[in-house]
Amino acid sequence: MRQPVLILAALAWLVASPDPGAAEASLLGQWEIVDAAPAPWVAEDQRAAAAARGKRLLKTLIVFKAKEVTSKVKGLGCRRAEYQASEYPLDALFRGALPEPNQERVALNMGFKRGGDVPSVDLRCTTGQFTYHFRDPKTLLYAFDNVIYTLQRH
Prior knowledge:
Elements: H1 2-16, H2 20-24, E1 29-38, H3 47-55, E2 61-64, E3 68-71, E4 78-79, E5 82-88, H4 93-96, H5 103-109, E6 118-125, E7 128-136, E8 139-144, E9 147-153
Antiparallel strand pairs: 1-2, 1-9, 2-3, 3-4, 5-6, 6-7, 7-8, 8-9
């Protein structure tokens, strides 16, 4: 009689426990842009302009909600948000735009970890498609307009 009770308790725990990977890759919540740098693929003569564009968005808050993204910066918000959890190998980050032949080294220099795919979230909404890569559970990187933005969970 004791064994069926233990089995039921174990099943209840599994059902009630969230998937650890899902929690790690959750984009929902409030994030702040804490760093912006020209993307590694930007030509040298365009790096200053990219850095200036990125600097204007520092300290901007972005709130990812179930069906929309909001921000005081109009271009960062969107309606009808659809999220898809994904994973990408280091050489496929930022849609494979990291400079070859050392894509993995560039990704490691950006703080991503060696040994496995990077948890990411693909976002599709009214203003376009975006991919956010998790450097760790509280840090995201995403590319927009030739700038790599670093976001921290608030």
